[in-house]
Amino acid sequence: MSALTLYDKVWRDHLVKDYEDGTSLLYIDRHLVQEVSSPQAFAGLIAQNRALRRPDAHVAVADHAVPTRNRARPLPDGLAARQVSRLQENATRFGIPYIPMRDRRHGIVHVIGPELGFTLPGATLVCGDSHTCTHGAFGALAFGIGASECECIFATQTLRQRKQKRMRVTLDGRLPAGVTVKDVILALIGTIGTGGGVGHAIEYAGEAVRALSMEERMTLCNMSIEAGSRVGMVAPDETTFAYLEGRPLAPRGAEWDAARAAWRALATDPDAVFDREVRLDVGALAPRISWGTTPEENLPITAAVPDPDAEPDPERRARMRRSLAYMGLEPGRRLDEIPIDRVFIGSCTNGRIEDLRLAARVVAGRSVAPTVQAIVVPGSAGVRLQAEAEGLDRIFRAAGFEWRESGCSMCVAMNDDRLAPGERCASTSNRNFEGRQGKGGRTHLMSPAMAAAAAIAGRLADVRSLA
Amino acid sequence: MQPFRSVTSVAAPLPEADLDTDIIFPARFLLLLDREGLGRHLFHERRHKADAPPFVLDRPPFDRARILVTGRNFGGGSSREQAVWALADFGIRVVLAESFGEIFHANCFRNGVLPIVLPAEDQARAMAAAGTGAPMTVDLESETIALPDGAILRFAIDPYRRRALLAGLDEIGAILADDAAAIDAFEARQRRTAPWLHLARDRLAFFDDLNRAPDGAEPESRAEAG
């Protein structure tokens, strides 16, 4: 038998059948259900009078539309309240566990899946949310789907798919001080472009990946979709097992031993061949900042706003002009001279405990600039409680940050956490699209450490110069 | 699903790259629970911009366009199927682009919308032809686009997706009808080889205290649900 990659092995283990036209029926083990992509899927199921095949394969939680403060009160927004209650009604009707927003297990789907041990190596996991690639950090084959596909999972526990090509991103070297895995993924997207991974399942490999914690691997895999790939995976290893052991839904006892043995065998065979190989030396990187309205438009903080006139490709030039006009930036301006109005630390990209520790280290003993409104939104109640136990909330509050409750918050601006038109935000989220953080809002993507530095400086700032 | 065979229509030219699903359908409208009637929020910010000329889809003859011609990486970003529902509700049945976001691309096929990937040269010809305001014909059976000047562009669609669109296939119904035994067999096998992927009663007990307490507004109506 020929050599296989991690992706090949998980695919093989979930193949129900191959069709003659080259598509395959893939079995899906786990489905995270949220309020935005599920109401129409449940409605379809009900309209067709179809049963939900496997209630034990789903967990439901409202993360996008929930407020991050005043949770003791009823939801104020009529539409949001209706959406959240619809999810609970559907979950109850079909026998799926529903985690309420005031529960200790609440959080962003991509934060709580791993926390609960719902996410496992070698599993197939989907969610009606593009950042489902986050779970690939565990060696799961995890990808975002649309609402119609959610309906298909409810009814059949399968999806008809065509296998992706395989792409390996090898990260060499060691991260320099002040540089994080967020800077690595931004640099990768800047290199291969937002379409660079289209049609491919990415595997992240190399010494720099092996050295990453699970939280860091999740940040890395999370933004695979920003490089165009639905799938970003890391082979499970001792770091993975140490994270998962003892999690509430993870296997235990003899089953844990059997699972771990199976997971060890998932690593890509040494002589396996990828359709595309990319290498990046992380030792040469500096902290990065996005300047435009697509994640690929990012540069080291030491750079200046680029000049569209220097871009030879006309489509790219037009794209840059549109970005600069929306962002209100002039070519040639130093990035570290751009003042900001807001800071957002959170999201499924950077809302985990290590992210908050990193930001708190920068913030400790300093104050948020008086011109800046800054919020910290833990990715889950679990993260919030852990941070509070460590006293991180007191560090943030003392510096002038607001300390919120878990949810997607200002990454997607579906609740009342959003930018006003023209406001500029230093954000640890994943997308700097037009209007992403609120109509007319301007987003600069960066690491938690860099967002913390920006909050203190009142402008985009190099965290290394604060140290 | 509505079958797709052939569309003859003026084509709206939208020569921009990277029109992501946040631009196609802004997130604040995702609070709506239905898939119908979303066309009024399509490209909402672009269509309600102060001090700007009317958006292409609001200008005759393109306000009746059923074909959209646009730049590379159309529909990237969020997986929101609302982007496709909004296009379809507006009347768009075909999108021509150099490349697409993958999840958007997959979502199109489940809603009777045909996303066509064209090489740069053909995309430029289609864009120029769209600008004339004359109708073109997109035919899925023959995988051709007939431009107003009579020129023919060829495209290729995944054979399964093509058949499904032509037939207006109910994919879920087809899987349930044809593959239920294969799924049963797979599940039985997996329960033996990887039992940890099936949450047993003792593990699910972790959730036993849920689905009881009300959460936020209207607790009474929720208590009655189900």
From TrEMBL, chain A:
**rRNA-binding: present as a keyword of the record?**
no
User: How many cofactor units bind, and how?
Assistant: Binds 1 [4Fe-4S] cluster per subunit.
**Single Gene Ontology BP annotation:** L-leucine biosynthetic process
What EC number(s) has UniProt assigned to this enzyme?
Answer: 4.2.1.33
Q: Sorted alphabetically, which Pfam families does this protein's record hold? A: Aconitase (PF00330)
Can you state which reaction this protein catalyses? (2R,3S)-3-isopropylmalate = (2S)-2-isopropylmalate
Q: Name one GO molecular function term.
A: 4 iron, 4 sulfur cluster binding
Q: Is 4Fe-4S tagged as a keyword?
A: yes
Q: Which CDD domains match?
A: IPMI
Essential cofactor(s)? [4Fe-4S] cluster
Task: Indicate which residues the UniProt annotation says bind [4Fe-4S] cluster.
Answer: 348, 408, 411
Superkingdom is Bacteria
Q: Which UniProt keywords apply?
A: 4Fe-4S, Amino-acid biosynthesis, Branched-chain amino acid biosynthesis, Iron, Iron-sulfur, Leucine biosynthesis, Lyase, Metal-binding
Please name the pathway: Amino-acid biosynthesis; L-leucine biosynthesis; L-leucine from 3-methyl-2-oxobutanoate: step 2/4
Q: Which segments constitute the Aconitase/3-isopropylmalate dehydratase large subunit alpha/beta/alpha domain?
A: 8-458
Annotated TM spans: none
Which Gene3D superfamilies does this chain map to? Answer: Aconitase, domain 3
- Known HAMAP family for this protein? LeuC_type1
Summarizing the function annotation, the protein's role is: Catalyzes the isomerization between 2-isopropylmalate and 3-isopropylmalate, via the formation of 2-isopropylmaleate.
The record describes its quaternary structure and partners as: Heterodimer of LeuC and LeuD.
Family statement drawn from the similarity comment of this UniProt entry: Belongs to the aconitase/IPM isomerase family. LeuC type 1 subfamily.
Its recorded name reads 3-isopropylmalate dehydratase large subunit
Q: Which organism is it from?
A: Prosthecomicrobium pneumaticum
UniProtKB/TrEMBL annotation, chain B:
Spell out the Gene3D superfamilies in the cross-references: Aconitase, domain 4 (3.20.19.10)
Segments forming domain Aconitase A/isopropylmalate dehydratase small subunit swivel: 1-120
Q: Name one GO biological process term.
A: L-leucine biosynthetic process
Quote the CDD domains the UniProt record gives.
IPMI_Swivel
A Pfam family (short name) is: Aconitase_C
EC top class, as a word: lyase
What are the alphabetically sorted keywords of the record?
Amino-acid biosynthesis, Branched-chain amino acid biosynthesis, Leucine biosynthesis, Lyase
Q: Does the keyword Lyase apply?
A: yes
Molecular function per GO = 3-isopropylmalate dehydratase activity
The pathway noted for it is: Amino-acid biosynthesis; L-leucine biosynthesis; L-leucine from 3-methyl-2-oxobutanoate: step 2/4
UniProt catalytic activity: (2R,3S)-3-isopropylmalate = (2S)-2-isopropylmalate
E.C. number: 4.2.1.33
Give yes or no: UniProt keyword Transmembrane helix. no
Fetch the InterPro entries from UniProt.
Answer: 3-IsopropMal_deHydase_ssu, Aconitase/3IPM_dehydase_swvl, AconitaseA/IPMdHydase_ssu_swvl, IPMI_Swivel, LeuD
Q: Which GO terms describe its cellular component?
A: 3-isopropylmalate dehydratase complex
PANTHER family according to UniProt: 3-ISOPROPYLMALATE DEHYDRATASE SMALL SUBUNIT (PTHR43345:SF5), 3-ISOPROPYLMALATE DEHYDRATASE SMALL SUBUNIT 2-RELATED-RELATED (PTHR43345)
Subunit structure, as described in the record = Heterodimer of LeuC and LeuD.
* Entry function: Catalyzes the isomerization between 2-isopropylmalate and 3-isopropylmalate, via the formation of 2-isopropylmaleate.
Q: Which family does it belong to?
A: Belongs to the LeuD family. LeuD type 1 subfamily.
In its UniProt entry, what is this protein called?
3-isopropylmalate dehydratase small subunit
Origin organism is: Prosthecomicrobium pneumaticum
Q: Which gene encodes it?
A: leuD
